[in-house]
Amino acid sequence: MARRASRGTRGREPLDLYGDVVGAALARRPSLARDALRAGFDFTAWRVSHLPDKDAPLSSQHAAELFFTRLTGALDHPESTAVTSLFLPTEVFQALGASPVCAEALAGTCAGAHAEVPFVTAAEGAGIPETYCSYHKVLMGMATSGVLPPPRMLASCSVACDANNLTFKTLADLWGVPHFYVDVPYEVTRDSALYVAEQFRGLARAAEECFGHRLDEAELSACVARSQRTLALLDRSVDLRRGRYLAGDLMGHLMGAVNAQLALGTTAEQLVATQLCCDLKAAPASRGLDLVWVHTAPFFLAPLTSHLDRNPDAQVIATDMELCCPGGEAPWFGPDEPFEAMAERIVRNCYNGPAERRVARVRELARRSGADGVVVFSHWGCKHTAGASQIIRAELEEAGFPTLVLDGDGGERQNNMDGQMRTRFEAFLELLRTRREERDDS
């Protein structure tokens, strides 16, 4: 514990008490820690549903309700849960009435509740390396400690996290539940999509066997149709964001990224995207700095949230995790070919393939949203982003978008150096303000 405390500079906070309760319960009996987590998750789901934040845009209120309501199922109803990797299309599970959940949702919520350290410690005690992705460490700690009950099945893909292979294979052995893996080629071609589509048909058969009933392909097509409409709405929102201020926060961007993957295909996520476009059309003009955020949003870090949460002087206007799938292009496949349509989406995902594809997507988001600059958050243990970060920075700056690479951790609070992060981020904001003033004067 002392080793972790030395990584950050923060003192005790009120929510630390909840983390202490979870940690003490875990030391006594895993079921007590599960009850403590369940109570916290269920209360938050009730609060955002019945006592929404009236100062937040309606789209953010709907997104919070969707995120937390679905999250509680992992602890409350494991028999209808599938643990998946973040970028795996999940319409098969939607059509079966199952609920997908991912490491980023579980671990991010634990970190926001200051309850991640006991699970990180449990994972490392079970042999998971300290340098492993903290999101996956929390998930592994929840599983190896017995707090997270076994789901009905596991499903993962090769996009884009290198931790997926080890995590899901280990959990399948630990829990004794089936695991289905989808291999995604780098090439963005129809042949790649057709190759992945056959794997999705295999995933559907495996899910039918696990959940005990047949997949209704008409319902699957309806889910895919909603996915395509939702992606088109999210793509339309990029242009609507230009020059507008929408009172948001980093937590909202994390929820948006998770919902845009795990809830894609639901009526609720289509409603979120529809309301987002309405909120943006009604939003006032932006007078502050607009940033495109690359990778996960560390919504609990005060050096960032103090400048970005509901602050008209600086906002995150778009994130590549929420908008990783282009929705403005005419698709190769429609809802009448649901497996091919899901396959096309993951093949086209900007996180699939070389870093240049991700650069192109971020550059497009920055251009269309009128961003002043870009922040690349190089999350602890994510070799994919760490390896690409300097390529992204160099190419974006060549394109005229100042770019800051921040090293930090979106899943474990104490892996962040607050003072250094605050200094670098504030200096970056000042640079952007100076550039804007010079541009306005010229």
From TrEMBL:
InterPro entries linked to this entry: FldB/FldC_alpha/beta (IPR010327)
Coiled coil: none
Entry similarity comment: Belongs to the FldB/FldC dehydratase alpha/beta subunit family.
Protein name: 2-hydroxyacyl-CoA dehydratase family protein
